[in-house]
């Protein structure tokens, strides 16, 4: 009986509670790939900037302006990372004529915040970044995020129809779905975790996440958000062998988003490493999406001008559909 009680306390008490502490963590992994890089490392002029989310959380970032100013791409990093995770994408965007805004999500890097929300609160950070970018440039704004950043980008785009496009790399379907999946993965790390059943451990962890984070984990639903993107250009990216966020997720998000959405599958086993492992096809796919965004803006211009001169309301945003052929 004692052993049974100890097992139950470990599997249904200690483990889910420890998992739930992630909402309060401020751990940032050491980024060995990017070290202490800044935009200046690539010869790019930049500004250190700060702005506040709607709930008052102070956020820190870098603004990298492009001379052509075709629009702005807001780059959003993953869980336990910092803006530096996205730094190598800035030269590509700059060369394509797009401004880049990189920033640290709440409770990451140099930004403030007391808790993490796995997208629930972070979408406020993305919304604040978009608002800040719009004050600096009137051109279209696109979101490009990886892992948690990809989920955050999709959640923010679902609520703001004026976000012109989305690149969602290595996202999850929903917080409950990914927690259940990860509890299963954790069991491979140590023999003692084989004693922990995925159910009901994951459900208990979700309860504590919601309790400690002050939000409903079920509301972090990226697949539902993808279904609200309308006709805007969007690209879902994945690594073929990613065990943390299997490639099937990208296709599920594409299906939810609709026929205008595209999927890029990059050969590789890493999580969030698609840009590094498939730079050329990745950049082609993103450049195609950015071209679609600009084409949609040009198509909207006559309608907007006509509505303005007639005193009417501008028609809602629509996106030119195009096909990106990409695969593993």
Give the key terms.
328 residues; alpha/beta; Rossmann fold; 10 helices; 8 strands; 41% helix; disordered C terminus
Task: Furnish the topology, listing elements before pairings.
Layout: H1 2-20, E1 47-52, E2 58-64, E3 72-76, H2 89-95, E4 99-103, H3 122-136, E5 141-146, H4 148-159, E6 165-169, H5 175-186, H6 198-213, H7 222-226, E7 234-239, H8 247-257, E8 262-266, H9 274-277, H10 279-310
Parallel strand pairs: 3-4, 3-5, 5-6, 6-7, 7-8
Antiparallel strand pairs: 1-2, 2-4
Describe the protein.
With 328 residues, this protein is of the alpha/beta class. It is built from 10 helices and 8 strands. It has helices at residues 2-20, 89-95, 122-136, 148-159, 175-186, 198-213, 222-226, 247-257, 274-277, 279-310; strands at 47-52, 58-64, 72-76, 99-103, 141-146, 165-169, 234-239, 262-266. A hairpin with a 5-residue loop joins strand 1 (47-52) and strand 2. Helix 3 (122-136) crosses helix 4 and helix 5 packs across helix 6. The radius of gyration is 20 Å and the shape is globular.
């Amino acid at each position: 009986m004692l052993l049974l009680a100890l097992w139950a306390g470990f599997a249904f008490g200690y483990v889910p509670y420890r998992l739930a502490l992630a909402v309060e963590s401020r751990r940032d992994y050491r980024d060995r790939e990017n070290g202490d890089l800044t935009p200046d490392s690539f010869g790019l002029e930049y500004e250190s900037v700060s702005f506040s989310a709607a709930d008052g959380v102070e956020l820190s970032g870098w603004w990298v302006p492009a001379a052509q100013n075709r629009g702005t791409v807001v780059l959003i990093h993953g869980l336990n990372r910092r803006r530096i995770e996205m730094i190598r994408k800035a030269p590509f965007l700059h060369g394509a004529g797009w401004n880049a805004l990189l920033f640290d999500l709440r409770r990451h890097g140099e930004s403030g915040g007391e808790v993490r929300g796995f997208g629930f609160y972070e979408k406020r950070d993305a919304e604040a970044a978009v608002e800040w970018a719009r004050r600096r440039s009137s051109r279209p704004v696109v979101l490009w995020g990886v892992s948690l950043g990809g989920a955050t980008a999709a959640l923010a785009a679902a609520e703001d129809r004026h976000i012109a496009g989305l690149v969602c790399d290595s996202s999850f379907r929903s917080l409950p779905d990914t927690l259940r999946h990860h509890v299963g993965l954790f069991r491979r790390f140590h023999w003692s975790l084989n004693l922990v059943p995925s159910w009901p451990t994951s459900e208990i962890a979700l309860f504590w996440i919601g309790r400690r984070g002050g939000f409903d984990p079920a509301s972090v639903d990226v697949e539902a958000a993808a279904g609200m993107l309308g006709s805007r250009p969007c690209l879902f990216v994945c690594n073929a062998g990613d065990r943390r966020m299997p490639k099937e997720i990208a296709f599920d998000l594409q299906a939810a988003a609709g026929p205008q959405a595209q999927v890029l599958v990059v050969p590789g086993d890493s999580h969030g490493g698609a840009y590094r492992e498939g730079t050329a096809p990745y950049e082609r796919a993103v450049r195609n999406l950015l071209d679609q965004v600009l084409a949609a803006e040009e198509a909207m211009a006559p309608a907007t001008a006509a509505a303005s001169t007639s005193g009417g309301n501008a028609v809602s945003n629509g996106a030119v559909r195009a096909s990106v052929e990409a695969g593993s």
